[in-house]
Amino acid sequence: MFFFDPLYLVFALPALALGLWAQSKVKSNFRKYSQVGNLGRLTGGEAARRILDSQGLYEVQVQEARGFLSDHYNPRSKVLGLSREVYHNRSIAAVGIAAHEAGHAIQDQANYAPLGFRTALVPTVQLGSWLGPILFFIGFVLQPTLAWIGMALFAMTSIFTLVTLPVEFNASRRAKQLLVNQNILIQQELEGVNKVLDAAALTYVAATLQSLSSLAYYAFLLTGVSRD
What we know:
- This protein has seven helices and three strands.
- It has helices at 7-33, 44-54, 84-87, 92-109, 113-142, 144-181, 190-222, and strands at 61-65, 72-74, 79-83.
- The longest helix has 38 residues, at 144-181.
- The mean pLDDT is 91.
């Protein structure tokens, strides 16, 4: 039987607080700038298509995706999925998010190393994110070696979140450049894009801190410091 350890809050609360604040900033900035139309009158789907075509990425499909702000790019299927709020909207927020996802497709085309590494980590992370903690706590009670294996599996999640940071920051940088270069937005309209994408970037920072704080907590328990 496991008991909740209040000490975990010492590790987890700062990252959790940052994550909640970042999520609120994403929603508030998206809500604000989804009401501000772009001068070019392009929808997010049209903006993504224009950017992709400008880079010769005609094979990448742009599709509507289910879910609120579920925007993503799948490097395996070469599909760029945009949520309904982005795909059909003619706002600054919509084209900013669409351009960001197109930035991932351009990274894929350029064989951007961090994106390739992150994609390769996905199967291991899917396993380690849920199995790692289970093995850790079983091993912590019964067998330290098993606990170390569990922590190593979970560590892959932390590595994944760390690699995600340059991938996301680079995609946003590419997006902002392309929006202006392709005459989708004028320079003055980038203020809204900056606020939306910068808030989204904070959520990735928070996710990284959350993963690292959990890993630090596991290491703290395993090294026996908390038993003194």
